[in-house]
Amino acid sequence: MNTILYYTQLAVSVILIILIAIQQRGAALGSSFGGGGEVYSTKRGAQKKIYYATIAVATIFIVLGVLNILLP
Fold first, then answer.
1. Exposed e or buried b for every residue in 24-42, given b needs 16+ CB within 10 A?
2. What's the pTM value of the predicted model, to 2 decimals?
3. Cα-flanking dihedrals φ and ψ of residue 25, to 5°?
4. Degrees (nearest 5) of the Cα angle 43, 46, 48?
5. Which ranges of the chain have pLDDT less than 50?
């Protein structure tokens, strides 16, 4: 059981790294064209889905870590 949790957590960590790496660094698409003076921007489309997927995968990663500690 511990081996399955270990490899699952390893796979989830790779997915989490990829999701974090593909997130945009700027506020939005307009910032890449010189319009980066805005303080607030909304996430839309794929950027919003990647954001929520990152939160979900991070939560799964934490739960798997706790399960790895608690289960013998």
1. eeebeeeeeeeeeeeeeee
2. 0.73
3. -85, -35
4. 35
5. none
